[in-house]
Design goal:
The protein has about 325 residues and is of the alpha+beta class. The chain is built from eight helices and 15 strands. The chain has two domains: about 180 residues, Fructose-1,6-Bisphosphatase, subunit A, domain 1 (Fructose-1,6-Bisphosphatase, Chain A, domain 1, 2-Layer Sandwich); about 140 residues, D-Maltodextrin-Binding Protein, domain 2. A hairpin with a 6-residue loop joins strand 3 and strand 4. Helix 1 packs antiparallel against helix 2, helix 2 runs antiparallel to helix 3 and helix 5 packs across helix 8. The structure holds 2,5-anhydro-1,6-di-O-phosphono-D-mannitol (AHM) and magnesium ion (MG). The site of 2,5-anhydro-1,6-di-O-phosphono-D-mannitol has 12 residues, from strand 5.
Amino acid sequence: MPKTLVEHVRERHGDALAELFEALAGAAKRIEARIRTAPLSDALGAFGHTNVQGEQQQKLDVFANDAVIGAVRTLGSVGGVVSEEDDEPVVFLDRPGARFVVITDPLDGSSNLDVDVNVGTIVSVQAIGPGEDARLAALKPGTAQVAALYVNYGPATMLVYTAGRGTHAFTLREGEFLLSGEDLAMPERGPYYSVNEGNAAEFPAAVRTYLEKLRDGSLLGTKYGSRYVGSFIADFHRTLLKGGVFLYPPTAKTPKGKLRLLYEANPLAMLAEQAGGRATDAGEDGRETRRILEIVPKEPHERTTLVIGSAAEVAAFGDVAAAAVGSVPQEK
Ligand code: AHM
Ligand code: MG
């Protein structure tokens, strides 16, 4: 019998993190059960509220958010939750023993729900120091993350986590997340790039050049294929296992990128790096690229551009972006 998630975390990282993971895995199982039968249970469709991102909340967004918050609320080790779905962080009062703040996108890719395409849950865990406010504790660079995980509700439901000692995968079977891949290593390079090419006309010149060179094989010696689900977890999970690169560059609509630093880019950047991959921003505004995990956040819902994946492709993007710095006159 393969090791369970909780056993794995307890052995490597101790009781407190294992207890937190048990709670988060419990939330994932509730979300999974609800998603699997959603078309039969009136669980699909809009909830009728727009979140702080200006996006229509789906009923399942609200269910997933309640599931995550409800699961960790009773743990004395958790001081609060920052969620994509809540404008303000939820702070649990009177928690002298709080060690963690949970930062989450409870149901990422929810616009794909109505068409039965993969969605995911993302969690980043930051440490809270004695007396530290949960909101401020969340506003640390990704290098300070204690742990990161996602759940991919795909043909199999898989939970992938790191707590700083490798990236490990677990598959849900009969109510238990069981170890199915230990110390995952992202291929050094891969066959695919993944980007919403519908926005290509709005991408900076460096991004367009990079994609062209991947397609024609002049950058890394092979011609790249294209894959894009439009669910970050599905696109990242494929990139983790097969290699390649996922990009969300600036667009006219989202000049600072679409994805959120704290609960989308940071946790997946930690998982990528722990598997030998890399993650940077797209070096917008005529700057060179920055490592995602070193960006100092200013507010919980801030966005970033993102280039994440195998070491070779992300490094090559950095080279193309650096060559473009200074070649385009910047507006004063
Ligand atoms: P969401 O958090 O509102 O679900 O939005 C995030 C999703 C990601 O899952 C995905 O990578 C991205 O939006 C796709 O955006 P686009 O449709 O612009 O390509
Ligand atoms: Mg989301």
